[in-house]
Each structure stands twice: as structure tokens, then as C-alpha cells.
Recover the amino acids of this structure.
């Protein structure tokens, strides 16, 4: 349920001492966007999140999506710099949908080719390119 996940994310952010870069995959992307759209409820200092890397956001708006409390996906600008990474053959989301969300969120967008849901089955191993993007995002702010 979305509200329980939002509360858990707020608790984790509050527990951090240093500003953090959030890294989210799949439903974690929807969580991050919902959490931001809700105004980061319960977070003591909104500056604790300096950026977010959102990998393989799922299309939560699909009627058959298994977590309906995350629908519809918010489309407002995120309050922190962000990067969306998507695959052109992700079974959970069409590339054009991910790209549209990235634009509405004010996020940079990287399409990495045919890598499915960008997970362990994608053959990326340690995924050096993703690590490089994360390092760049982390050191820019």
C-alpha cells in the first residue's frame, strides 16, 4: 500500500544525517514520485534529498497493474534534480510513457536500449554506466 511505503521512505530519509541521493527501481520510482508529490510528508528537512535516480519506472496506470494504490502516476515537477533510466523493451512500461514522465518531472532521461526491466535478467552485471550516472548525479549537487 502506497501510504505505508511513503511513511517508510520518510522515516528512512529522516534517519539520514547527510543529504541523500535516492536510487529507485520499478515500484520504488512510483513511490519516490508520489512521496515528492505529497510534499515529502513527515520529513524534518526537505534538503535531505539532493537528487534521485529512477530506474525502470512501471506504468502504474495500467488497469492490470498489481499495486493500484500507486495509480495514477503524479506528473508534477520533482523538487530535486532527477534522472530517469528506461529500456525500450520494458514489459512494465512503454518507452514513450517513461520519457513523457521524465519530461513532466523535469528529469533528465536516458534510454539504454533493449534491456527489459533493467534488472538481474538484463545482463548488465555491475552496470558501470548506471554507476557512472549515479556518481555524476551525486557529485553535481
Amino acid at each position: 500500500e502506497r501510504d505505508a511505503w511513503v511513511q517508510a521512505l520518510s522515516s528512512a530519509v529522516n534517519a539520514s544525517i547527510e543529504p541523500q541521493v535516492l536510487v529507485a527501481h520499478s515500484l520504488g520510482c512510483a513511490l519516490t514520485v508520489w512521496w515528492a508529490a505529497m510534499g515529502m510528508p513527515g520529513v524534518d528537512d526537505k534538503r535531505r534529498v539532493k537528487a534521485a535516480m529512477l530506474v525502470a519506472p512501471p506504468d502504474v496506470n495500467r488497469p492490470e497493474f498489481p499495486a493500484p494504490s500507486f495509480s495514477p502516476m503524479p506528473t508534477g515537477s520533482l523538487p530535486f534534480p532527477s534522472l530517469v533510466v528506461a529500456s525500450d523493451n520494458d514489459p512494465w512500461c512503454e518507452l514513450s510513457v517513461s520519457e513523457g514522465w521524465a519530461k513532466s518531472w523535469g528529469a533528465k532521461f536516458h534510454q539504454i536500449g533493449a534491456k527489459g526491466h533493467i534488472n538481474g535478467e538484463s545482463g548488465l552485471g555491475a552496470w558501470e554506466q548506471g554507476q557512472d550516472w549515479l556518481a555524476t548525479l551525486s557529485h553535481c549537487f
User: Anything to note?
Assistant: The chain has four helices and four strands.
